[in-house]
Amino acid sequence: MTTTLPTTAALALGDDALVLSHRLGEWAGHAPVLEEEVALANIALDLLGQARVLLSMAGDEDELAYLREERAFTNLQLVEQPNGDFAHTIARQLYFSTYQHLLYGQLADSDSEFAPLAGKAVKEVAYHRDHAEQWTLRLGDGTDVSHERMRRACEALWRFTGEMFQPVAGLDVDWSGMEAAWLESVGDVLRRATLALPEGPRTGAWSAGAGRQGLHTEPFGRMLAEMQHLHRSHPGASW
Amino acid sequence: MATAAAHRTAGAPAYGAPDAGPEGDIRQRAFDAAVAADERIEPRDWMPEAYRATLVRQIAQHAHSEIIGMQPEANWITRAPSLRRKAILMAKVQDEAGHGLYLYSAAETLGVSREELLDKLHSGRQKYSSIFNYPTLTWADVGAIGWLVDGAAITNQVPLCRCSYGPYARAMVRVCKEESFHQRQGYELLLALSRGTPEQHAMAQDAVDRWWWPSLMMFGPPDDASQHSAQSMAWKIKRHSNDELRQRFVDICVPQAESLGLTLPDPDLRWNEERGHHDFGAIDWTEFWDVLKGNGPCNEQRLTQRRRAHDEGAWVREAAAAHAARHNGKNNGPTGVEQA
Lengths: 239, 340
Fold this sequence. Notes:
The structure holds 2 protein chains of 2 kinds.
Chain A: H1 5-25, H2 34-58, H3 61-67, H4 77-80, H5 86-108, H6 115-140, H7 144-158, H8 175-192, H9 218-233
Helix pairs in contact in A: 1-2, 2-6, 5-6, 5-7, 5-8, 6-7
Chain B: H1 21-36, H2 49-74, H3 83-108, H4 114-122, H5 140-157, H6 166-194, H7 198-217, H8 229-234, H9 242-260, E1 270-272, E2 277-279, H10 285-295, H11 299-312, H12 314-326
Helix pairs in contact in B: 2-3, 3-6, 5-6, 5-7, 5-9, 6-7
């Protein structure tokens, strides 16, 4: 596969959507309330739809999803993080959907080949962001237990947020402007949820663009093993 | 709705209203007349307590089946072998959660809360369909569930769209539309496997071998052993007998199995010209009662997972309720959350 610039970007954004969709799919049958079974599956389906369009821009969607090794995936480390408790899932959703909303918003208004996809997806992602925001408010400003869980979740995932603003080759985006808008938006939600932006570092040797370069965290390999096992067990089969 | 007018009561829902006394007799006669005239009974209408209790039991069992039924299929979401199949399966499991929502809401119109019903499910006082106590061992099981289990469910549920209780009948119209979609997707999944590699074909046959008999059991015990059937038919909650529906299902499946290139695991299965139906072998009712009693392969596992999801989610529901209370209903939790 020749990797042209749009392909690099399609894979990066496609992998983000594919991997987060997979993680959200793991909630099926485990959600805290029936409405969340519907909501989390709905978000997972939107993301899977985006992933299929994006991966197809770069090649065959199933070959890319099922036959690449871990080091060839260029998703953010944030999206591969295990679900944890509901607070961790919501913190991950808040961080990622805010990012994706800003990114797709810019791409939708651009003349890039991603504009059509982004124009459609930005509307879906607006709902994902709203869902994450509403739950952040409920959990942060709910009970003492939920406040503490939400605070911990936001802190635990904080170090994976810096890499979101590493420029992706092939995307003409104002990355630093986006980062400022992201900090403002997430900070505002967290303040209203009686929480605060975590103070720890947002980048480090491993989190600054590592996922985009194919360096992942340990849980990702197991996730891929599960995802790819059946497909790989029947080489060449159609499903 | 002319004849139904007499059993309508103004004001508060009438469930639980006393049946006795002259007024009760009038109401009973009006209710009977409405049922006889194929009119719909609505939540505010007077209804006999036993009718209400039967509906609550049936709708609750149906709702529980939808949410427990998510488990065997969700078991394969993370391993679906193509992105297209993964999207189809996720959408299906999501539909089932949605069906659970409509059905718990239909039950709420009879004066029971979702929380109350979930509590009965978790404590084993209410049941769900025994079919979900069988495991999904291979990917082909996802297809077999769609084709056979959803197929059997549709055969059971299409007549419920004409059930005498309005909210249940209307919920079933939407449920049946989606179920019929699931059934076709299951069939199409099995067809792809059956026409695929020898390994895929064997996987499909193995799944059909394991799911066929439990699917036939989904119609419930034979008519002479079915404890609720006669009264439910009189009330027009139920429209056809268990054995009638089972026969209809077998007759539908036989030609479909042929088109699939798969064999139904019953050596006694053959067309009976005289009856105009397929004869089929004896069902192992010992297995049915055994699974119903809790001794199926997954009874323990299904209930344990359900209880765990509920217990582990308690703090989330409590947070939503606390938040809603503090903010006077602004940014309310989703329906049901407040009942935590």
